[in-house]
Structure of Integrase core domain containing protein:
Amino acid sequence: MRTELSVLKNRIDGLENLVQDRFQATGSADTEEFRTQLAEMRTQIANLAVKPAQVPTPVMPESLMQMLSQAPSTQTLDDLWREPPTSKSGKRKHITGELDEETPTAPAKEARRQEKRARRASKREAIEKEALDQ
């Protein structure tokens, strides 16, 4: 409010200088009416500066008031973010160090994996042999 009043005072001073320059340029010496209006404006601004400004009280919902009145909490980002989500297929994300542990697998699954690896290895060897023969 105070800065706005000082800005108004500065504008009035600038306006006074501008009007006086214009009156001098036109050769008119009757500036009395302008001076009385200017004095009236200055008294109005002075009255505004003396009066305390009435600021309306902000309207806030009760929930917001409760949140603002609570003491601030310090929470780490890890606590805030929690665990990473699991994918929809049910596969969970691996945690470091978990891959080092041996997980028990069914013997039938392990046998199929071994056969699959052997087939891949033989295919690679066949492709490499063909490439060397050409």
In short: Residues 2-50 form one domain.
